[in-house]
Hints:
Blueprint: E1 6-11, E2 14-19, H1 30-44, E3 51-56, E4 60-62, H2 81-96, E5 101-105, E6 108-110, H3 112-118, E7 122-126, E8 130-132, H4 146-154, H5 156-165, E9 169-170, H6 171-177, E10 182-184, H7 189-201, H8 205-218, H9 223-238, H10 241-251
Parallel strand pairs: 2-3, 3-5, 4-6, 5-7, 6-8, 7-10
Antiparallel strand pairs: 1-2, 8-9
Helix pairs in contact: 1-2, 3-4, 4-5, 8-9
The structure holds ligand LHQ.
Amino acid sequence: MSYETIMLTVTDGAYRLTLNRPDKLNSFNAQMHEEVRDALTRIEGDADARVLLITGAGRGFCAGQDLGDRDVNAGPLDLSQGPQNDYNPLVRRLVALPIPVVCAVNGVAAGAGVNIAAACDIVVAKASAKFAQAFSAIGLVPDSGGTYMLPRLMGQARAMAFTLLNERLTAEQAAAYGLIWKAIPDDEFGAEVDAIIAKLAAAPTFGLGSAKRAIRESWSSGLDASLDRERDMQKQCGLSPDYREGVNAFKEKRVPRFTGAGPV
Ligand code: LHQ
């Protein structure tokens, strides 16, 4: 499939997916959902994938659903279709990807745009970027996992006020609240994102993917189950060539050369 609403590149296992409807602040329409689905299928099927970056073209990251896509005056609409067919599978796939997913919030994020970012593993934002939950302004409930991720990341008091008041957060606030990893000065943003992606593309991917899964699964389990999960995952990681390479490189005081592979 060739893409019109996204861009997808891959170099040395580092995928970069750019939402590309800048005149609509990269809001999602049906075509964009279809193209993102196709891109994720490609990435999921690539055993050499090491990291995925999601970002936006132009001055925005993503303004959520394209509000021009539906005629709200044409009769009752079934809004469960968007979450069911598009947003829920997207969030589930990002969370399940066995590689780190980095979100580079290059400008305003609103509605599902915030919650898709929150579903990614590492989120950085341009210092000038803003975050707006937006749903409450049009009488909707946050979807795309917002009611799950936001209270866990920010705490309920902040998640609730962010949602109900629809106040815009600056990137600095978002970082201070735990919604994102960090805000980066605008003029350093591209270089720092590149450095994060380069680091993750050269990392022991199986171990990172295991850590991602262990942290995410801890949200729905207790300490005992988490300890058991860590034990079982450590067994698998210990059988990976990257474990041996990491220890050998440490002892030999050299830079490790990781392949990303799992147990062999
Ligand atoms: C847009 C949009 C947009 C179209 C800006 N659509 N054009 C799931 C399931 C089912 C149904 C509903 O939705 C969902 C998930 C959702 O995400 S619902 C929430 C949808 N998103 C919003 O409600 C956000 C609406 N946008 C905004 O509040 C503001 O535009 C933000 C805060 C994103 C940016 O504000 P500004 O920086 O002041 O920019 P702007 O408002 O001037 O927008 C720039 C252009 O982008 C403008 O077009 P124009 O032709 O006038 O330059 C906007 O119309 C367009 N745009 N968001 N979601």
